[in-house]
Amino acid sequence: MIRSELLAALAKANPELRADDIERLVDVFFDEIAQRLAEGGRVELRGFGAFSTRERDPRKGRNPRTGESVDVPAKRVPFFKPGKEMRARLNVG
Fold first, then answer.
1. Which is it for strands 59-62 and 69-72: parallel, antiparallel or unpaired?
2. Are the C-beta atoms of residues 51 and 37 closer than 8 Å to each other?
3. Residue 27's domain spans which residues?
4. Out of 7, 50, 69, 81, which could bridge 44 as a Cys pair, Cβ 3.0 to 4.6 Å?
5. Mean local confidence (pLDDT), 18-37
6. Which one, of 41, 37, 30, 32, lies nearest residue 7 by Cα?
7. Do 63 and 87 lie in a common domain?
């Protein structure tokens, strides 16, 4: 699903809301998650899952074009852990 499909599904499920209100709501939702993660926090949506960040250590990488060894710095990356209910929905059948 892409953003426009999400907006369309929300609009269909909530015909009393204007399209720009739905778009603003989605913007705030994702901006709040991104902001909390940028601050080093965690976002937990019960029944869905938890967003957090993980530290990646610095390492030696390789440039695929030249084969040259390059230093890859340490960084934080987003991580999602699905909740119990989400895992159950994915493994039905």
1. antiparallel
2. yes
3. 1-39
4. 50
5. 96
6. 30
7. yes
Same domain, 26 and 70: no
**Locate tokens 């852990």: which residue?**
81
3-class SS of residue 23: helix
* Cβ density class 24-39: b for 16+ within 10 Å, e for less: eeeeeeeeeeeeebee
Q: How far is CA 91 from CA 3, 26, 44, in A?
A: 25, 28, 21
**Count of domains forming the chain:** 2
Q: Are residues 64 and 34 in the same domain?
A: no
Residues 58 and 14 in one domain: no
**pTM, 2 dp:** 0.79
What Cα–Cα distance (Å) separates residue 40 from each residue in 34, 49, 60? 10, 17, 25
At residue 93, does pLDDT exceed 90? no
